[in-house]
Amino acid sequence: MTEPANKKDGANHSTRSPALALPFLGNVKVKPGVLVAGFSVVLLLAIPQLFPPGIDAKSKQNWLDLFAKFMAMGILALSVDLVWGYTGLLSLGQGVFFGIGAYMIAYCLTLHKAAQDARPKMTEGEPTTVVLHYQGNFPSPKTVFINDGKYRIDSIQFRVLKASTPGLTAVLTKLPAASLDPDTAEQIHNDTLDLTGPVGKVQPMVLKGEIAEEKILRRLEEEGDRLYLEVTGNGDRGEGEFTVVLIPEIEEYMRPGEVPPQFMQYTGFAPNDPNYVPPPGLALIAPLGNAGVAVAASLILPALIAGLFGGVIFRLGVKGVYFALVTQAFLMVVFLAVRNQQRFTGGVVGIKDMSSLELFGQSFDSAENVRATVYLVAAALVGSYFICALLIRSKFGRILSAIQDNENRVLALGYTTALYKTAVFAFAGLLAGLAGALYVLANHPVCDTVYLSVPFSIEAVIWVAIGGRGNLFGAVLGALLVGFGQYYVSSALPEFWPIALGLLFIATVLFLPRGLTPVAGPGALLGLLLGVFLVIYLEKYNLFDAVDQYLGVGRRGRVFVGCPIILLSVFIPKGLTMLFKALMRFSPGRAMPTGSVSPVPGS
Amino acid sequence: MSTQNHHTPEKILRVEDVTVSFDGFLVLKDLNFSIERGELRVVIGPNGAGKTTLLDVITGKVRPAKGRALFQPKSSSCQDVTKLTQERIALLGVGRKFQTPNIFKSQTVLDNLHLSAKASRRVLPNLIRFSRNGSSRIDEVLETIGLAPKASNIAGLLAHGEKQWLELGMVMLQDPELLLIDEPVAGMTPRESEKTGELLMSMAKKHTLLVIEHDMTFVRQIAQTVTVLDEGQILCEGTVDEVQRDPKVIQVYLGPDRELLAT
Hints:
The complex is a heterodimer. Chain A is an alpha+beta fold. Chain A has helices at 32-43, 57-86, 94-117, 208-212, 280-285, 291-315, 320-340, 342-345, 370-393, 395-405, 407-412, 417-442, 448-451, 454-467, 472-492, 497-511, 517-520, 524-540, 543-551, 557-569, 572-586, 588-594; strands at residues 20-21, 29-30, 121-124, 128-135, 142-146, 151-162, 169-175, 186-187, 193-194, 202-204, 219-220, 226-232, 239-252, 357-359, 362-364. Chain A has three domains: 20-49 and 472-586, no CATH class; 54-114 and 289-452, no CATH class; 123-252, Sandwich (Jelly Rolls), CATH 2.60.120. In chain A, strands 3, 4, 6, 10, 11 and 13 form a six-stranded antiparallel beta sheet that branches. In chain A, strands 5, 7, 8, 9 and 12 form a five-stranded antiparallel beta sheet that branches. Chain A has a two-stranded antiparallel sheet with strand order 1-2. In chain A, α1 packs parallel to α18, α2 runs antiparallel to α12 and α18 packs antiparallel against α20. Chain B has helices at 51-58, 86-92, 109-116, 123-127, 136-144, 160-174, 190-204, 216-222, 240-245, 247-254, and strands at 11-22, 25-36, 40-44, 66-71, 79-80, 94-97, 178-182, 208-212, 225-230, 233-238. In chain B, the strands form two sheets. A six-stranded mixed beta sheet of chain B has the order 6-7-8-3-9-10, sandwiched between helices. A four-stranded antiparallel beta sheet of chain B has the order 2-1-4-5, covered by helices on one side. In chain B, α7 (190-204) links the parallel β7 (178-182) and β8. In chain B, α3 (109-116) runs parallel beside α6 (160-174) and α5 (136-144) runs antiparallel to α6. The longest helix of chain B is centred in the middle third of the chain and has 15 residues, at 160-174. The chains are: A alpha+beta, B alpha/beta. Chains A and B meet through α9, α10, α11 and α12 of A and α2, α3, α4 and α6 of B.
């Protein structure tokens, strides 16, 4: 960025135009424009608070989801800008790293979903014995055992200890917790017992389920199910006991990573089946069932792959347009690999079935927890922005810019430029991975046609070109602007969007070679947010419907109103500043006393 | 290295039997050439003689098809630079000023010098270095190249001569033992050219200089020994006067049966 020369600058060369010193940056100075930019970036964090009161939940959720998506795109734009804008390496394959980050999180979420949906695995505990004893004239009927977990009744033995009056019978029934009415009780053994004897003899009993295989009868499933002993008839009941052997059934919920996810199309998952063989991809992605591991993988794996790729490519001295082609080819290789390995990646269908991401005890998704997702993405965007800002202000950053200016000179000064390029490419890979991971939270499902497509990676370059290449702020601005523009145009005229984007790109290259930011100033992002919320308020108060009706063009009317608002809003702060300055200039109170300012320029 | 033994230690650079071929066209043919430590050597020769290619070989930009170039740094053993990478050669102590000004045009003059000054070239230390202040050495160089008042100007907006001086300043800050300078006064006014000559003479006190130049007035101003290169081979070597009188030199510069070089 061109700065005006400081005329009075003498011995102390580091002083620059009006600036504030930040204590933790040593002698790095922050210009007021940077503060405005910082303020609008911080404003991103306040997005969920800014909606009109009474906006319906569905519509708010939709808007929040868009914010989360476009801010994630902003992080991808930062990644492209570091590589292309600052180092001069046009990467048409940032989608690779974006995609890897996205797939890592998608695997995690689909493993969670599969585990949630799977039936729990049963294991049997040590048998326990319950003795149900009756004696004399106890008040009958009597509940004798209330279960505290899940049990299977293994066997029942009956023994008469003292003979009763003839004609009395005993029945052991199950009374489900759901209905404690004794009339609904089900007898769980097949015979009605005569209690007269023989005394002391153990009588094994045939369980109903053993014949009918109605195993349900032999289970105490719900907490509060009762075993219910009833002795019917009049007379002396004598004394006797039922010895019931219960086998506890321990339910084990499936953990993420144990159940094959839906995209592996593995029907008939039965962990108790001794013949069960897990699908080959499961062991590979199982560790990602842990959310922490998945998040780490979504950052480290892209960085690692970018580092390896860059290490080889830069050492080979691939530069300029060849680098762009190689990155594009790399993207296509990854795309084809993902498409063809359906068992591992879901192929063209992708990964659809996903739960929310559980992290730090908070759920993140695009539905009921979208608010949390917006906060998370905004925090990540602001964090990435400041890390990038530090990076480019460091000596490392100036060496990157020097490489873009004149790599031969950097080499001749003794810097191993390949290492610098590899380092920045790896870091950009990490950022792209982060962007992809966050994008998944707001945009299910994950499939190759979105994340790994060639047009998507090229679009990321266009965001940066429109916002302002070599300008972190511009990258974020471009991503958000194109994102909202796309949403607005393609909601009504989807077929027109590629043309609109193309026109915008051509116009930018022709008229604003350094992008919008140098023209719109640091307030541009602030303006864009204003514009988007203006549109949200207009929608809330049904203005667009009125326009649609007035023009009689269906939902297209909103495109003609919404798009210009969003596009032009980036110029609002700059426009207001210029207007304010102009007013100050023509104000007689200011011009008259000094007499030095001519009210009419060039007169 | 065994080479250390049979070369006299005062030779800082010894180019031996170097042949460079571009698609079969021999740019340098079995070239043998050496410079002593502390010398200011000027290499002249017609277009296409292989002057710049010679510098490319020494700085590792071009790998010769055969031969070697031995560089003897003060404090370490003799190295064959044709086997080393460009950045390794630079760190050994070979600085180069390119023919057209090679500077970082989007950065300030001060930042340009800052990046050139002696400091760690590794990635990690530079990630956490934020200071942009000059050092006393940078201030000194700024004074020497006369750009002190323009220290915070964007380098790309400097005048051509100033850019050349800035690049000389950058190379000086590297503090190399051997300085290769390719046409330092191309496109300069006579005044600027004279100032550049003075600059080079002052640099020659501390460094060994190898200068490529066309401008004979300038050569006369600075040269001690002149080497004439033609079609990839050494034509002759000597003082400016000796070289200018040499009929072979006259022939390659002006063609057969022509008058002497310019006065």
